[in-house]
Amino acid sequence: MEMTILCAASAYEQKFYINPVFDGLPDRIKEELQVICVLFTEDVGGILLITFDEAGNLELQTKHETDDLLYDEIGSVLKIKELQKTRVELFEALEMYYKVFLGEKSCY
């Protein structure tokens, strides 16, 4: 199944990445995504990926290194659920943006 990465943050590298395909997003939205991702990884560790599936649905995914004893697996699940509740409007707007402006041409 193909997915398109919107953005990601890594506690390991202490870096934030936003896919250049989404350069058209307003700066305020890009900054908000950066805050969400960085705070998430500072809280629970690991890597947070915000992606779109083939149908254009936004997904929050977390990964971690197998030997990472500081990664909070329970905290990551709770934090994702919290973000899905508190950022509904942002995530719905991002899905709409993806479906209208990018659709299938951004998958690679």
Defining traits:
108 residues, alpha+beta, 4-stranded antiparallel β-sheet, 3 helices, globular
Describe the structure.
The chain is of the alpha+beta class and 108 residues long. 44% of the residues lie in helices and 21% in strands. It has helices at residues 27-44, 73-86, 88-102, and strands spanning 4-10, 15-18, 47-52, 58-63. Strands 2-1-3-4 form a 4-stranded antiparallel beta sheet. β1 and β2 (15-18) form a beta hairpin. α1 (27-44) runs antiparallel to α2 (73-86). The model has no long low-confidence stretch (mean pLDDT 93).
Secondary structure: elements and pairs:
Blueprint: E1 4-10, E2 15-18, H1 27-44, E3 47-52, E4 58-63, H2 73-86, H3 88-102
Antiparallel strand pairs: 1-2, 1-3, 3-4
Helix pairs in contact: 1-2
